[in-house]
Structure formats: C-alpha cells, structure tokens
TrEMBL record:
Superkingdom, natural source: Bacteria
Coiled-coil boundaries: none
Segments crossing the lipid bilayer: 7-26, 38-57, 78-111, 117-139
Alphabetized UniProt keyword annotations: Membrane, Transmembrane, Transmembrane helix
Taxonomic placement: Bacteria, Bacillati, Bacillota, Bacilli, Bacillales
Name of a matching Pfam family: TctB
Ranges of residues in domain DUF1468: 10-144
Keyword Transmembrane among record annotations: yes
Protein name per the record: Tripartite tricarboxylate transporter TctB family protein
Length: 149
C-alpha cells in the first residue's frame, strides 16, 4: 500500500469521525457547542492539510523518481498502546481521573520513550493539576473521582 493511499485513508477516516461529531454537537446548546465545534473544525483542517502534504510529497517523489522511504509500523507497540488506552477508559470511573491520569500519562511517556523520567513525572503531575484547576475549580465540571469520592 502506498504512503499516499495510507494518508488518504487516514485523513478520510478522520473527516468521517469529525463529521459525525460535528452533527452530534448540533444537538448541544449553542454556548456549549461552540468549543467542540471549533476543535472539530481545526481537526478537519489538519486532516485536509495532512492529505495535501502527502499528495505534494508524492508528486515530488514521482517527479524526481525518488524512492519514498517506507516506515515500518511496530504492530506490537501499537497494539499495546491501544490496550493501555482501553484499560485507561475502563478503569477511569473505578479508580478516578486524578489517580489514574498521572499514572497513565507517565507510563505512556516511558513506553513511547518520549522524554526522560523527571520530565515525564513533571508533565504527568502538571497536566493533571492543570485539568483540576480548569475543570474543578474554575468551571465546576465534575470529573470521575473514583476512590477519592
């Protein structure tokens, strides 16, 4: 499967999901729907930009007879990452957002080797504290508390 086809499928899939979410957001009150609709439009723009970029790179590669380097996908890694997301969603109500999210994000940072241990710890705690400040203190939006409730 060519890289252009992969990007076409990915951007098309994203646009389908975004369309579904946008239609669902129309059921919300106008003020509540505004932010999700803005995010949805931004995601749609990024999906279209991803397709355009892939198309341009494909054209350049075919014009110069350049071989496009294939990226191997580590299926085991993708599968384990997907399982970890599913487990996070499953245990979110049971354990609670403020306990599970720092553990999950730290684990993901370490598993993906995205950063060092100290920065992963700081980002995990910092992001959770930020979400607490915005949603609990500022907006008074309930967050799954799990064992803390």
């Amino acid at each position: 499967m060519s890289i252009l086809l992969k990007y076409t499928i990915a951007s098309g899939s994203i646009l389908v999901f975004v369309s579904i979410f946008f239609i669902e957001s129309l059921k919300l009150p106008d003020t509540a729907a505004r932010l999700p609709q803005i995010v949805i439009v931004l995601i749609a723009i990024l999906a279209i930009a991803m397709f355009i970029q892939a198309f341009i790179e494909h054209k350049k590669a075919t014009n110069t007879n350049e071989q496009v380097e294939k990226e191997n996908i580590n299926v085991k890694r993708v599968f384990l990452f997907g399982i970890s997301i599913a487990l996070y969603i499953f245990f979110l109500d049971i354990i609670g957002y403020f306990i599970l999210t720092p553990i999950f994000s730290f684990g993901v940072f370490m598993y993906l080797r995205a950063t060092n241990v100290i920065l992963a710890f700081i980002l995990s705690i910092g992001f959770t504290a930020f979400v607490y400040a915005v949603f609990n203190l500022f907006l008074n939006i309930p967050i799954p508390m799990g064992v803390l409730s």
